[in-house]
Amino acid sequence: CVGCVWGCLDINDLTENKLLGRMIIELYDSIVPKTTGNFKILCQQRSNELDYSGTQIFRVVPGLFCLAGDVEYSIGLGGVSAINGERYFDDENYVLSHNAPGTMNSIVFY
Q1: For residue 48, with 0-12 CB atoms within 10 Å meaning exposed, 13-18 middle and 19 or more buried, which class applies?
Q2: How far apart are CA 16 and CA 3, in angstroms?
Q3: Does the structure show a pLDDT above 50 at 35?
Q4: Three-state SS annotation for 36-96
Q5: Quick check: 6 and 25 in contact, CB under 8 A?
Q6: Closest listed residue to residue 40, CA positions, set 58, 22, 28, 55
Q7: What's the distance, CA 91 to chain centroid?
Q8: Can you give the pLDDT at residue 1?
């Protein structure tokens, strides 16, 4: 894939302290640079900063989707970006679609 960056996230069960699996994620820097930049920053464990460590998968709809990654409240109400402390930033993508299983997006519920 031209202009893509690959990353991965480990999924852990914190109650049993065990690794459940790893997600391999393809990021489209050339299409959504601000979104992928925000995602990459949140994947890094940084002391006293927002990151994905300890966040929960807070909603699962079997066969359809799961919601996770609320670094602010862990229940889907947060909307803080890791980029310059911005609350939200404008949509960047009207090209890519959710046309296959495993497609991921970044969304903020207003």
Answers
A1: exposed
A2: 38
A3: yes
A4: HHHHHHHHCCCCCCCCCCCCCEEEEECCCEEEECCCCCCCCCCCCCCCCCCCCCCCCCCCC
A5: yes
A6: 28
A7: 15
A8: 47
Q: Which of 73, 72, 75, 68 is nearest to 107 (CA)?
A: 68
**Tokens 């996770």 sit on residue:** 68
Q: List, in order, residues 6 or more apart from 105 with CB less than 8 Å away.
A: 98
Does 110 have pLDDT greater than 60?
Answer: no
Long-range contacts of the stretch 95-100 (C-beta < 8 A, 24+): 95/31, 96/28, 96/31, 96/32
| Other CB atoms within 10 Å distance of the CB of residue 104 | 14
Tell me which residue of 107, 108, 96 sits closest to 27, measured CA to CA.
96
* 90, pLDDT greater than 50: yes
- CA distance from start to end of the chain: 33
Phi/psi at 4 (5° precision): -105, 150
